[in-house]
Specification:
Helix content: 25-40%
Order of helices and strands: HEEEHEEH
Protein name: HIT domain-containing protein
Organism: Candidatus Roizmanbacteria bacterium RIFCSPHIGHO2_02_FULL_38_11
Structural class: alpha+beta
CATH class: Alpha Beta
Bound molecules: zinc ion
Strand order of the largest sheet: 1-2-3-5-4
Pfam families: HIT
GO molecular function: catalytic activity
Shape: globular
Distance between the termini: 31 Å
Number of domains: 1
Number of helices: 3
């Protein structure tokens, strides 16, 4: 898909804070983070919805990155979301949650995180992910 921003990230035409990559999937930090370590996992091939993805290893990639986030950032727990309304390229949201989240609601608000911090967070998760085999 020529104009799809996630396809552009896959092709290297747009930068990302990469946390994971294999043959078929790519993980990077959401640039509108709702938590430290808020990650998106996408198939490299363009699909409209997560349930359209034909490669059965999608969930495995999501779990791998979840484990890497858990090790790297030690959140209280981790949520998943799929909306698919903003960018029309299949993506899972992985949202780590910290401390008392009772006032945050199901989907926390967007946080301000500096580029330097985003870069550090991505490196930490990426590094942990290299040691995770499932
Ligand atoms: Zn796409």
């Amino acid at each position: 898909m020529q104009d799809c921003i996630f396809c552009k990230i896959v092709r290297g035409e747009l930068p990302c804070y990469k946390v994971y990559e294999d043959e078929s999937f790519l993980g990077f930090l959401d640039i509108y983070p709702r938590a430290v370590g808020h990650t998106l996992i996408i198939p490299k091939k363009h699909y409209r919805w997560v349930h359209d993805v034909e490669d059965g290893n999608y969930w495995e990639a999501v779990v791998k990155v979840t484990k890497a986030i858990d090790k790297a950032l030690r959140p209280e727990f981790i949520n998943y979301f799929t909306f698919g309304l903003d960018v029309h390229h299949a993506h899972f949201h992985i949202i780590p949650r910290y401390g008392d989240v009772s006032s945050e609601g199901i989907v926390p608000g967007v946080k301000k995180i500096s580029k330097e911090e985003m870069s550090e967070i991505a490196k930490k998760i990426y590094k942990e992910g290299l040691n995770i085999n499932i």
